[in-house]
Amino acid sequence: MRRSPPNHYKAPEKTSIDGRQRSGIFPGAMVKVEQKQDQGTGRLTEGRVKEILTNSSFHPHGIKVRLEDGRVGRVQEVC
Question: Domain coordinates of the chain in residue numbers?
């Protein structure tokens, strides 16, 4: 009886930019941010990036940005 070879192929997972890498965020990008007053609630605010406020290339809590409407928050997801 012949056995099939083990399946070592793993399908690539959906790659989404999670907001901790500055390289994936740019002015004009649509993002979901967590504002300071919403920390811990899970409430996200969607908007378009006007300005990137974090200078480093990585931040464990998300890159801080200013949205076009003036609100500031840390990017949790890039739309």
Answer: 22-78
